[in-house]
Amino acid sequence: MKVLIVFCHPVPDSFGAEIRDTVTTALSDEEVRLIDLYSGVDLPRDFTDADGAALSWAEAAVLVYPT
């Protein structure tokens, strides 16, 4: 299965990051792509065309973000 994980949290060692890592490990037998919307910036970056392509590629998506 093709799974897209979208992660959005400003703190790299947050509980959300632990959830992201746990999901990634649990899906190790699947084809997984990760989008990190903070990826080294202070504010979440915009959703790009490449992100849209990854979303089209995916058969399932996991969203990890603070609530």
Textual characterization of the structure:
- The protein has a three-stranded parallel beta sheet with strand order 2-1-3, with helices on both faces.
- It has 67 residues and is an alpha/beta fold.
- 31% of the residues lie in helices and 25% in strands.
- The termini are far apart.
- It has two helices and three strands; from the N terminus they run βαβαβ.
Strand and helix layout:
Elements: E1 2-7, H1 15-26, E2 31-36, H2 49-57, E3 60-64
Summarize the structure in short.
With 67 residues, the chain is of the alpha/beta class. The protein has two helices and three strands; from the N terminus they run E-H-E-H-E. It has a three-stranded parallel sheet with strand order 2-1-3, sandwiched between helices.
